[in-house]
Amino acid sequence: MLHEPAAKTGADPAFLYKRRLGAWMFVLYALVYAGFVVINLVRPGAMEAVVFGGLNLAVVYGFGLIIFALLLALVYSRACERREKRLRSAEAAGGRP
Prior knowledge:
The chain is about 65% helix and about 5% strand. It is built from two helices and two strands. It has helices spanning about 15-40, 55-95; strands at about 50, 55.
């Protein structure tokens, strides 16, 4: 089975914005995750504490990390989409973003 060649793409004018936003979001997530690790290292018994709806801290924090990652992905996607749209409209108008 043969494939068609990949579509040619040009330079991404929003690349620097995307990279900076992605890096900041990574640092933010890493800090929240580090909190999870620190609690497990320093006070592992604290993870057994029931905090919400009969669920212990380990489960709530773990699901919170997953939901937080999904929210960050949605925010990143929307922010990049808005920046690209703004750059396209500025480019079409012949101006700067």
